[in-house]
From TrEMBL:
Keywords: Disulfide bond, Metal-binding, Metalloenzyme inhibitor, Metalloprotease inhibitor, Protease inhibitor, Secreted, Signal, Zinc. One of its GO terms (molecular function) is metalloendopeptidase inhibitor activity. This is TIMP metallopeptidase inhibitor 2b. It is found in: Secreted.
Length: 199
């Protein structure tokens, strides 16, 4: 009886661990230019995280509520955002934020408030390049009518005058993501604008 029970418990443990491994790989996000993340978010803010609370459904944790203060709104119309919600587990695209840190946060609004995920543009403010900060505060919004197409193999071309072709994936560098914005010009075409490198 003990041997049979051990086999059953071992089998259950293997199945459980296999299921957890599959769950851990459940969150998959496409690599996109930060401007695309900005333009496809309902709300984009800069805010300091000052606390966190776990939200439960019965006895199961389902999300984390991050308490924020002094939000500066760059995109969207939201009033008095004092918290953001994210799934509890990174397997369901939950974001881990550090208390006391200023973040750029992007997401959507519903009746509960602002929600963020790993697939959004959610990074410490100090990790942004100068060009990205300028993009968030000024340039990205000007290019939200443009399309940013990710190119994975050469040649990277487009015949659409309102499209910028993002080539970082081809060359394996973060050049355009870190230093360029896709801007709509006066002639109604879109083109990359690259900020001068900071010294």
């Amino acid at each position: 009886m003990t041997r049979a029970l051990n086999i059953i418990l071992l089998t259950l443990a293997v199945l459980l661990l296999g299921g957890l491994e599959e769950t851990a790989e459940a969150c998959r996000c496409s690599q996109v230019h930060p401007q695309w993340q900005f333009c496809n978010s309902d709300v984009v803010i800069k805010a300091k995280v000052v606390g966190e609370e776990t939200v439960y459904d019965g006895t199961f944790p389902v999300s984390i509520k991050y308490i924020i203060k002094k939000p500066k709104i760059f995109r969207g119309e939201c009033q008095e955002v004092d918290a953001v919600f994210t799934p509890y587990s990174s397997a369901t695209c939950g974001v881990r934020l550090q208390t006391g840190t200023d973040y750029l946060l992007s997401g959507y609004m519903d009746s509960d408030g602002m929600h963020i995920s790993l697939c959004g543009f959610n990074v410490p403010w100090n990790s942004l390049t100068d060009t990205q900060k300028l993009g968030v505060t000024q340039h990205y919004e000007k290019g939200c009518e443009c399309t940013i197409q990710t190119c994975f193999t050469l040649p990277c071309e487009s015949s659409d005058p309102q499209m910028c072709v993002w080539t970082d994936m081809v060359f394996g560098v973060q050049q355009q993501a870190d230093h360029s914005s896709c801007i709509k010009r006066d002639d109604d075409t879109c083109a990359w604008y690259t900020s001068p490198q900071q010294t």
